[in-house]
Amino acid sequence: MSRLPVLPGVLIPKNEKLNFTWNADLVFYDGPLVSLFKKDDDDFIFFWVDADSRHNRWVVTPVGRGDLAQYLEARLSLRAIIDKAELLLVFEATKQAQRKNARTIVPSKLLAEYMPDQDSFLYESIATEAALQLASADVGKYRIALDGELYIDDIATVPRVYQQLYSFHYGLGNLGRPAVRTTLNRFLTSWKGGINAVNIFTGLRGVTPSIHRARVLELHYASPGHIELELLKEFAADIARTCQQIVPIESYRKSEKLYSDIYVYFRKEQLSGFDSDGGSASHRLTPMQSKALSGFVDEYFDIVNWDRYKNEFQGLGLDPLTQLRMLLAYYRRLRVLRRYSVQGKISLL
Question: What is the distance of C-alpha 258 from the center of its chain?
Answer without folding.
Answer: 29
